[in-house]
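All the exercises in this workshop are built on plain-text protein records. Sequence and backbone structure share a record, each on its own labelled line. The question running through the whole workshop is how a given chain folds. The record below serves as our worked example for the rest of this section.
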Amino acid sequence: MTRVLLRLVLRWETLLIVAIVGGGIWSATLSEFFFTRINLLDLATPYVFIGLLAFGLTFVVIAGEIDISVTSILAVSVVSFAQLLDHGVNVWLATAAGLGVAAALGLVNGLLVGVLNLPSLAVTLGTLAAFQGLAFVILSGEGVAEFPQRYLSIGGGYSKQELPHALVLLVAAAFVLGLLLHATRFGRYLFAIGSNREAAHLSGVPASRVRVTVFVISGLMAGIAGIAYVGFFGSARADAAQGSLLDVVTAVVLGGVNIFGGAGTMVGVFLALILVAVLRNGMQLANVGGDTQNIVIGVLLLAAIAAGNLGRAIQDGSISLARLGIRRRGVIRSDAKEAAIAMSVESQTPKGR
């Protein structure tokens, strides 16, 4: 029972909950408005699109890949939707088309990585720029700000004037994707590929197909994030979500997802997003500048990477607790006892033998 409780306490998700509480207390010292009911309910609303992007990216990273083009895919999706709507297409058909565009762009990334075996960092760095340029080609530098109210309510509406629809969307997405990741054969394939792609392939896992699929999921989630983005901000622009990649990657890595693949939970990513939202909300209420906020989030990202690498090094034996100066008292006593026995044996051994 004690071991179970100890494992529960030492879980990354538990540490994130503690960090959220600590971040909330710190934010409350910055502004007296932080612990109001309205603020707490609306806390994550501006970051729902970031969370949806992070959920999609989680699949990619667990598979041992990376996709830094997600914000550009979001931009292409929302401007495609806006153009279709502007040309008289039904709002829901235009929405479906925008999601289709996002999934297709994810498929492009997936084919380049999963079929042609090109490095995902190089591929998505290229498509980050290419898709961003495509967004400006579709909508130039203009923005569209006229949308049906029922569409905007998805990302900016409220139930009973208090509960944000965007928060419901975020929780629902986390639940569905969590089931897909942790309760299906596809999810098990992901962890196997991320841990050892060659071994997974030899075990019969369709590695190429799964790697393509995760990029499609990432692209589709970018399209859904675009719906939340337009609903909250009330506009569609070619530069939508620019500058948000730091928060997206931070939510994934801070959520405990191994940047080298093979480990991670959807709950952890969700909690990490809440932590980022708590910190940014507190700093915004205190009128802290955006650059300073980015410094805080950047330091948090580096700390998460360092902590994750240290934990994995201790688990696989690359770094022993003894080297860190962490030795159990019983071990020290055992070592001292062994040394005393060795000295006693040596003193009793006749010389010349």
